[in-house]
Amino acid sequence: MAGDTVTRARLAEAVYQEVGLSRTESSALVDAILDEISHSLLADGTVKISSFGTFAVREKGERVGRNPKTGEEVPILPRRVLVFRASQVLKDRINGDGTGEP
């Protein structure tokens, strides 16, 4: 899966290949996992996946932005954003310091 975008279909195919569930069951499993992550983020605001990282919902306050073309100040309304913080294990794998693919 290196180099390409990982889609639900690719995740389901990987589950099908590795676990041996049917393609329909694999797709349902991937959908269930992603739905659970989404619901947990909405309810609790944080999802931690061991050896992978932490997803968190963060509140951003109102601030003043500037249109770069005109220089006009524009208010940016408060909003919630999703942030991801990679675990040290994932960082090591990405940098080739740990086991697994670099």
Could you give a short description of this structure?
The protein is 39% helix and 27% strand. It is an alpha+beta fold. It starts with 7 loop residues before the first helix and ends in an 8-residue tail after the last helix.
Principal-axes shape call: elongated
Structural class: alpha+beta
Helix content: 25-40%
What oligomeric state is this?
Answer: single chain
Model description:
The protein has 102 residues and is α+β, with helices and mostly antiparallel strands. The protein is 39% helix and 27% strand. A 3-stranded antiparallel sheet has the order 1-2-5. A two-stranded antiparallel sheet has the order 3-4. The radius of gyration is 19 Å and the shape is elongated.
What does the secondary structure layout of this molecule look like, with pairings?
Blueprint: H1 8-19, H2 23-43, E1 46-49, E2 53-60, E3 63-66, E4 73-76, E5 79-86, H3 88-94
Antiparallel strand pairs: 1-2, 2-5, 3-4
Key descriptive features of the protein:
single chain; 102 residues; alpha+beta; 3-stranded antiparallel β-sheet; two-stranded antiparallel ribbon; DNA-binding; IHF-like_DNA-bd_dom_sf; Hist_DNA-bd; transcription regulation
